[in-house]
Design brief:
The structure is a homodimer. By secondary structure, the first copy, chain A, is α/β, with parallel strands linked by helices. Chain A has a seven-stranded mixed β-sheet with strand order 5-6-4-3-7-8-9, sandwiched between helices. Chain A folds into three domains: 93 residues, Winged helix-like DNA-binding domain superfamily/Winged helix DNA-binding domain (Arc Repressor Mutant, subunit A, Orthogonal Bundle); 107 residues, Rossmann fold; 32 residues, no CATH class. The termini of chain A are far apart. Chain A is built from nine helices and nine strands. Chain A is globular and about 60 Å long. The structure holds a DNA duplex.
Chain lengths: 241, 241
DNA sequence: ATGACTTTGTGAAGGCTTGCACAAAGTCGA
DNA sequence: TCGACTTTGTGCAAGCCTTCACAAAGTCAT
């Protein structure tokens, strides 16, 4: 993401004096656009039309243009968008011109998987600490970092902006409370269940079961709609009758 | 989730002859309600008011009631909802009265973590196959299952309803194509990037970087809004000036 | 320079979602 | 039985989001 730094200066002026009101739905899609732009940059493509970029991101071109209009983006009519400039503008809007320090709490399988996942660095985030409360795990090294307890981190750890919770569900709320007490105001929670936090804290939850259940809903709908059926799973088919 | 089976029969009649139109936003919240109900059942609580359940799920009570009204749910005025009956109704709506067979493709750290994650079984899903294309991994056993290639699964594997993609990004589209060719119409994609699939196929994407970037946006907003700042990370603070 | 063509940016319409206000329907104590 | 109280279910209004339609603004060949 270092390639975004060069053009940042030009972007700041437009973007900083904006009204401040980017719709939440748009914010949710900006990362998709950024994700689509990166390989374009790598391929040396310097310009792209909204129609094409929208296809890469999986949205409609009119939505892409409306979204970009919210951040005062300037494409060129008849031509399209400058890939690098647009990426820099989006990165600026998302606050990715600085690197956010992240702590992962819970060194189970998922926590380790995330710790070794390359998707952090180079995308605006850096893992600066790992935590767990299992004495057998504390003190071990994972991906070049020594695992500590959250309590230790609170008293003598690096500053952290974002906390990622990968503990079992029963521990999640206590961990969230500790993170909040440490001053963390952004939490990404992989443990199933709702976290109660103060208003100023932002929590996003990612729950595998929830995602699968939404898929299952639509899957079932398809099966109920077309009683021609065919294959498909196990027991309990009387539901369709 | 076996405790849901008992009451299912009573539910079927109401639910099956419904109009069919449950709003997408509601579908996205039904899993949250189910998730909140399970511990209540375990604690032996048999009845709950919408206000309380909403708090557990992290939504407003009026939204909960509106959502439930879409699936023709019958609470009792002045009393609340029967925990087990409500859970059974939601499970029914989501298609969780049967167990959906799942394949995980990509036996890297994340794939292994998901394979060993307990959140599948007992929630309406069962991992029936694991796949990878690395010859060093194919043939090994993970969590009691032997890893095979997708090609082998296509010709001689168990029927699969849902595919979970945990491969690196460059492989994801090819894997999706193969899954679709196998008849899979529901895909959960953990690889960053947009998947192109036929209309009848349902894809949900979970991207760590995307989630973190949305958090970063709000985090930055807080910092820009309150220039009192204080702590917080590294370089590039001139953005705020 | 001109005209045909391409592509962006946006006002307005339509649809979906949320939240309010309140009637309906039940419980419970006296 | 009655009256006070609780809690659900829902019509309606407000707000947000998406999509359409099209003017604005540029390129490019001639």
């Amino acid at each position: 993401m270092s390639w975004l730094r060069g053009v940042r200066a030009e972007v700041v002026h437009e973007s900083v004096r904006r009204t401040g009101g980017v719709p939440e739905a748009t914010v949710g899609r900006l990362p998709l656009y950024l994700r689509a732009l990166t390989p374009l940059h790598d391929q040396g493509i310097t310009n792209i039309a909204s129609e094409e970029l929208a296809a890469l991101a999986g949205v409609r071109s009119t939505q892409l243009r409306k979204d970009l209009s919210h951040l005062g983006s300037y494409g060129v009519r008849g031509v399209g968008y400058d890939v690098d400039l647009l990426a820099a503008q989006i990165a600026q809007e998302l606050g990715l011109t600085q690197e956010w320090p992240v702590v992962i709490v819970g060194m189970g399988n998922l926590g380790r998987a995330l710790a070794s996942y390359g998707g952090f660095s180079g995308r605006g985030f850096r893992i600066v600490a790992l935590a767990d409360d299992d004495p057998a795990v504390v003190g071990t090294r994972v991906e070049g970092l020594t695992v500590s307890t959250l309590a230790d981190l609170a008293t003598a750890g690096p500053t952290v902006a974002i906390g990622v919770i990968t503990t079992p569900a029963p521990a999640a709320q206590a961990v969230a409370d500790q993170l909040v007490a440490m001053g963390v105001r952004s939490i990404l929670n992989f443990a199933p269940g709702h976290l109660t936090v103060p208003d100023e804290v932002d929590v996003r939850g990612v729950d595998l079961a929830t995602e699968l259940q939404i898929l299952a809903f639509h899957e079932q709908r398809r099966l109920l709609a077309v009683p021609t059926s065919g294959q498909v799973p196990s027991e309990d088919r009387e539901v369709a009758g």
